[in-house]
Amino acid sequence: MKKLIGVVLLSSALNAFAGVSVVVHPSNDSSFDTSTIKRIFTGKEKSFSNGNKAIPVSQEAGNAVTDEFNNKALSKSSAQLKAYWSKLIFTGKGTPPKEVSNDAEVLKMVSANPDTIGFVSSDAVTDAVKVVQQY
Amino acid sequence: MKLKYTLLVAALSSTALHAEVNISGFASITGGQVLSGSGVPQFGLEPTFLADYPIVSAYKEDFSLSPESLIGLQVSGDLGEGLSVTGQIVARGANDYDAEFEWAYVSYDINDSWTLQAGKKRLPLFYYSDFYDVGYAYVWMRAPADNYTWQIFNYEGVNLLYSGSIGDWGVTANVYTGREDDTENKLLSEFFFQTPTREIWEDILGGVVQLSYDWLELRFTHMRYTNKRFRNGEPEMWNGSDSRDGKFYGLAANADFGNVFILSEFNRLDLDGDLDTYMISAGYRFDSITPYIMYSNFEQKDGDDPEKHDTRAVGVRWDFHPSAAFKVQYDKVEDDSTALAVAGDSESLTLGIDLVF
């Protein structure tokens, strides 16, 4: 039993270092680089390079993967990002991405809607989505 | 007027039975006091720190929570197909927490890049003008008082907004037109003239272009308007005319290198002569603790005893909670004019919490 707990703890510790993958629908043939992803998730870019509308999907602020994505992909702490969005929300210039509660929900949304883009822990990625960037 | 906006918001939100309604808000609970100050003896003004001109947030030698504390609620109804309506109600300690609609507008997304808005909005003169009340959105206790001095800060009109990108540069721009008729302007009536003053800015026409590239952000703006004023019902005359034209020019440049950031703003209002303002600020983010320094300056270019004052500030922002920040700031104001003195020299300390919800 003790051994099992040890294994569980070890694997969750490894999860923390799994990295973040940015995922889109498999049919999305747009080009992505770190700058495009940053602009889409900060509301500065509203379309994919294939011309379709881009709908970013984020995860709840408490999730480790959210902090990692904010830090690595957006170069912002969660507090900085919140301050950034407050400015846009209260001046009528933008709304932050919808937040879902976990990796599974992101995968569900992105695999069902070709206009969405999301991020998940890299070890949660499935064949239902296409990885366009890893951090 | 207030009733009209209430009805507008109510009408638009009730006709759409399936509108998605979002409620969000912000608050600042701030207290402070003047540590030492000269006041303005020739006007009988006791030691005062005027932290916000248009709202008349005046700290005195006794600690007070009233001058800058506020709570704001934003209700936004998304009616679908790009149409939305937004109302923002703000209750300020400086106005005994009487809640007022400060924003009330309808917004229509023409396409991904263009949005048309109409109603009552904040006049976007300065970089921080339209989110001045949302302390959580910026590092300092307040945007520099020396710069944000103009008595009119809202307008009723139309705003066309553009958002797009050119290569790696984000581009936002807007053009707006409208007017504001403030029947009893707070700054002029209560502070400067101490007599009921009606302030009118009409034929307002302005534009803003904002460019952002990774670490750099630039904002250019120009606005022109016609000013009319009635003191005790009597029209104010300037060089034999009951109106005068103002032209505003502004440039803001911000550089953010992750931990180190530099913020700056340079503005000129040409209103019977030039009134120049600028500010420069820098800070460093140590994880959740951000110390900063700031210098701001106001200078009237003409006259023997022009209006002239500046502020040196040092402070710390601490993001102690995912949705709240604690701030403390020390301000040292020097007021160099006699006839056009504002509030005299002062040193003050303010501290408080800004939050969003």
TrEMBL record, chain A:
Domain of life, per lineage: Bacteria
Keyword annotations from UniProtKB, A to Z: Signal
Signal listed as a keyword: yes
Signal sequence segment: 1-18
Protein known as: Phosphate ABC transporter substrate-binding protein
Species of the source: Pseudoalteromonas rubra
Lineage of the species this protein comes from: Bacteria, Pseudomonadati, Pseudomonadota, Gammaproteobacteria, Alteromonadales
TrEMBL record, chain B:
Span of domain Porin: 7-353
GO molecular function annotations of the record: porin activity
Record keyword RNA-binding present: no
Domain of life: Bacteria
Pfam families: Porin_4 (PF13609)
Swiss-Prot/TrEMBL keywords: Signal
Cellular compartments per GO CC: membrane
Extent of the signal sequence: 1-19
Name of the featured protein: Porin
Organism: Pseudoalteromonas rubra
